[in-house]
Amino acid sequence: MTGKRILSTLAHRLAILAYVAFALFPLYWLLKVSVTPNNLLYSEGIRMWPSQTSFEHFEFVLRHSEFPTFFKNSLIVSGSTAVIVTVLASLAGYAMSRFNFRGKYWIVTLMLLTQMFPLVMLVAPIFKMLSPLGLTNSLTGLVIVYTAFNVPFATFLMQSFFDGIPKDLEEAAMIDGATQFVAFRQIILPLTLPGIAATLGFVFTAAWSELLFSLMLISGNDAATFPVGLLSFVSKFSVDFGQMMAAGVMALIPACLFFLLIQRYLVQGLTAGAVKG
Amino acid sequence: MASIDIAHVQKSYGIHPVLHGVDLEIKDGEFVVLVGPSGCGKSTLLRMIAGLEAVTEGEIRIAGKRVNDLAPKDRDIAMVFQSYALYPHMSVEKNMSYSLRLRKTAKDKIASVVAGAASKLGLDPLMERRPKALSGGQRQRVAMGRAIVRQPKAFLFDEPLSNLDARLREQMRAEIKKLHQDLGATSIYVTHDQIEAMTLADRIVAMHGGIIQQVGSPLELYDNPANLFVAGFIGSPGMNFFDGRYMVSGENGNFVLTGGVVLPLGSNANLADGSRATLGIRPEHVVLGAEGPNALKATVDLVEPTGFGIIVHLKLGPVAFKAFTLDRRFLGMHGDVAVRLPVPNLHFFNEEGRKV
């Protein structure tokens, strides 16, 4: 290797390192603050790591705050949304990919249209719609809203996965004696697992971190999801940074676990659909 | 096993017609090959028989029963796809038994039938593998195995060999023929490869532009093509064509080629005096190095040895044509050569391209 090549490799690595450090620093800071005891939080100035660490914030958050409730609510809302959206998107994506039906063009256009508006615009109308139905301040309401917002994109995502699976396969199954639905369930669906995992992951994280509608539709702590719950650490006169950060760290856990579980499919999935489609 | 009747079948996509009224009767146990260039409608016709495409007009009957509105699964046919269409997430054994499992066949029956098919096709050591871990030829065999396990009324083959290399294609072609001899099942085979059509078929159906051009045994189509399309499509290297005019002089007919060369025919062809026509002759019938009264002078353009024989590219004035010979003396040939087009081997096609 010549000197020039070593130098360029070094520069390349350094650039990547700088980028990764920049992206991960907020997470690092979150972790750092969460383990800094209250008495050191303001007294030590800016240090990369506190002179003393403790888990007191974690203990407080778990024992004395309503964080477990928020956490449970978030899990219910995100999990249900992810499952419902994926089921709907699989069926719709399959129809989009395989069937020709009247109004298909308009349905696709309308679905695309929903992706074009900033969600803030919809807060008032949604509230107005859900309020008489008794769906404000309820997890069900949140699930419905999140599902509605995520189905279009998830449908497009699933459609691209179905497009990547040759039509011959279900035709072979149909000749072998399957109905179209059995062919879908036994042949096509198992082959779309990477796509399903990608969609599940995408929708789960989207719902997990959603703040706007959660904030607008939920009042009170019983049905609050954790992004809203985090705000409860902000009181009129002070912010409990330590506790807030501890809660944040714990909120990261399910998302991390989820991605760890599906990342194998995710990489395969996101590229597979793109290249073949 | 069953006969298949196709009566006045038409197909159009929107306003675009792809099949213009096809009539065909396939007898029980017959091996019929649909052959033609891509886009001629042969695959569409096959898919209509399978039930994968709707019939726009006309009727398809399998074993005398109208199947136009039956789902593929209720037609009791098996199909081998060009892409093999093996289920990637199932082992070879599961692939082959899928149709039987869907029909809730008893487990021991499935096992024995699948084992029988596997040994027939030499798949025994591969039963636990996934399609991904198989070679092209093995995948092809699995696709065939999947078709034969349930003894359907008919086998449909949609260009099953086009993804294989030349050597393997030859081998599988023979295996398919042997399989048909063993099982005697009604088979419809789609291909664009005229060699496959010639070697496999009991009867060939030559198609072009959504219309059946000729139906007959392989040699009928080869020796007696009904029109210019069939004459040009069947045979490799293909038949030579010369445009010209038919002239009568007294008792005899002459064919005047476009370049002005006169070919005395000795007798009368079934053509009107002075009418435009096309003369066809197969390359193997062109006689090379034949001096004599009726010899024509051609120029050698190119010599292609195939090992088995030699293809000589010739020019008669501006018209290019080919000769095929087994005589290796012609290998080093160049310059001018005397050729003869023996009258008994000539085919004449009238202005509409029909054989006379």
From TrEMBL, chain A:
InterPro entries referenced in this protein's UniProt entry, alphabetically: BP-dep_ABC_trans_perm, MetI-like, MetI-like_sf
UniProt superkingdom: Bacteria
Start and end residues of each ABC transmembrane type-1 domain: 71-262
Main location: membrane
GO cellular component, one term: plasma membrane
Keyword hit for Transferase: no
Sorted UniProt keywords: Cell membrane, Membrane, Sugar transport, Transmembrane, Transmembrane helix, Transport
Record-linked Pfam families: BPD_transp_1 (PF00528)
Protein name, UniProt field: Multiple sugar transport system permease protein
Organism of provenance: Rhizobium giardinii
Lineage of producing organism: Bacteria, Pseudomonadati, Pseudomonadota, Alphaproteobacteria, Hyphomicrobiales
TrEMBL record, chain B:
ABC transporter domain mapped to chain residues: 4-234
PROSITE patterns: ABC_TRANSPORTER_1 (PS00211), ABC_TRANSPORTER_2 (PS50893)
Residues spanning the signal sequence: none
Membrane topology: Peripheral membrane protein
A GO MF label: ATP hydrolysis activity
Sorted UniProt keywords: ATP-binding, Cell inner membrane, Cell membrane, Membrane, Nucleotide-binding, Sugar transport, Transport
Predominant subcellular localization, coarse grouping: membrane
GO CC annotations, alphabetized: ATP-binding cassette (ABC) transporter complex, substrate-binding subunit-containing
A biological process from GO: carbohydrate transport
InterPro entries according to UniProt: AAA+_ATPase (IPR003593), ABC_transporter-like_ATP-bd (IPR003439), ABC_transporter-like_CS (IPR017871), ABC_transpr_MalK-like (IPR015855), ABC_transpr_MalK/UgpC-like (IPR047641), Mo/tungstate-bd_C_term_dom (IPR008995), NA-bd_OB-fold (IPR012340), OB_MalK-like (IPR040582)
Subcellular localization: Cell inner membrane
Family of the protein in this entry: Belongs to the ABC transporter superfamily.
Protein's recorded name: Multiple sugar transport system ATP-binding protein
Organism: Rhizobium giardinii
